[in-house]
Amino acid sequence: MSGALGEGDSDSVKRLNRAIRVRPGLDGSMNLPSFASGITVSPSPLHSAVAFRTVVEGAVAGRLSFSNLLDAMFRLEEKLQPDVKEMLIKFLSKQENMEDLIDRLTVVVPATTDEEGIETPNGERERHRYSYVACMLLSNGPIQLRRSLFLNPKHLDRLVRVLGHGKPSDPVVVRYVCRVLHSVLRDSPEDTVRAMGRRNDFIDALLSHIAVTGCPEVCLAMLSTVRCQAELKFGPSNKPVVGMMADSKLVDTLCDKLSSAAENGPLDGTASSTIENCSRVIVGIALRALVIPRYEINEDDTHANYMLKFNRDLSSLDVFTEPAPILRLLDSGLVALAAHDTRGYVLSTALTAVRYLLVTALNGQDSSLSTIRMQLMSVNTCAYEAGIRARIPKLAVVLEHARKGAVAETMWERVENPLGVVRLRILELLTVLLQHCSEATAMAMIEAEVPRILMELFGRLRLNSLLQHFVSSIVEQAFIGRFACLRRSLLIDVRLLDNVMELWEVSMMNRQDPVGNPMNYTGELLRIACGVHDFFKQDSEEAREMRNEIGEETYARFIDLCNGPVAETLNENGPLCSAAELPPRPGDTFGFEGYSGSLGGSLGGSHGSLFLKSRPTGGIVKS
């Protein structure tokens, strides 16, 4: 298994910290003093700090082997005395012991079996005990150990050569190695990057393990650490890495790996992890590239060639300058959905990445940091938008045709062909595009019949409140936006007024029996009706023209609806009765799942958001 690799070792971080810490017993329980019911359980004498002092003294004197020392550390059940800890760290910091410690990162001892040849219950953990102890010492141990590591180029060279192309094959070991690499990148990025640069194929070797937990974090930390990715706040950038990543074609390689994983269906754990991790790295690298300043080159500059190459390399990592990689993710998702990916996992991942990049870049133009604002103001999203626009027809087909044969059971009724997560992701992207796109993209939506599809889904899936929210948001945005073509499509082609009146009538009928036949879209219908009413109330030339094309009879019935039942409903709902701005609605802020903590857990703890502006209710409130 890859991706969820080493998950049986979930308690490992608790066992060693600052060199040595109390660890769980072999039965998985913590051998800590227990104070329950007044009973104290003492640790085993063989695994106590007193016994460990003897082991350390024996290792220092040469009476015990290095393996004996690591075995004792693995089973240690008490905190060490300061003098023992100092003696241990001093011993481990010696050059020959540091080299041995690095080598032990990849050591997997043979499994312990019983008389019948079956591996013992704790055999998995025992087999990885040396690599585990070496990992915890070098990643979570005292800074003195890592200082001994990165102050000696030979040690760093040895460390960056641990990972080969597909080797080691044990994902648990790879995870341990990545954890150590991430720690030394955090403590001494310049020395570590130089060591990585001395190995020409380091990035290729690292990407061969992209499905393993920890590998994406190393890729991203090579360029810079993360403070808050959604706000484009990163640590100092390691500029030599820009050239390394461009020369190794890192982004293209990640796209190839994602496409390869997406083609081989059905998706297993390794393929799913590869898809998610490739997407995370592509997004993380692209966002870092956005805020790294380019060189301003003068004709007489002696380093002009270097600066030109750096600027070209940086552009190759910037998806807004070179959008082809991120668009490949969309294409791979569409192909996989048509072939075998019934859940739409690949396409959903790609849509999240596309939307997250666009929203974060746009929000960066309002950053609290002037350096980020200035950097983002020069970003041109035209090529990025054009790439998405070219794929709107295919996305519209996916949106219209829900999974055939799929059924969702609810307490009210059986819903056939429900929307599904991937189609909600499409709606989220369309909502974001509508707020910031050009008229060409709005026309592409019209040609793909997106307005018709939205209203049909709104009426069919009456229990899907998320769908109803997105549809009402898109319609509302269309009537306060700058695209007359979209308003015309809704009012004339889709016959929006007739649709609203019909849906309102059905909604009122079902409100009489809400338990047996619920109707969730009444509130969103109010939102649509108010948006259309406010548009006509402006009495602009466009509004008068639309009114003539709709017909006076239809228009009069709609106005009667707004001034009657709609106004009465608004009056019954306190805060909505005033002419002030509408309060925030659930879903007005879009979160970006899957991109946390590390794209906090996976791309920056707080995820960026894009707010839909609330609209004044105008004057349809009945006095």
From TrEMBL:
PANTHER family: FIERY MOUNTAIN, ISOFORM D, SIT4 YEAST -ASSOCIATING PROTEIN-RELATED. It holds the Pfam family SAPS. It comes from the Eukaryota. It comes from Gracilariopsis chorda. Belongs to the SAPS family. One of its GO terms (molecular function) is protein phosphatase binding. Keywords: Cell cycle. This is Serine/threonine-protein phosphatase 6 regulatory subunit 3-A. SUPFAM superfamilies: ARM repeat.
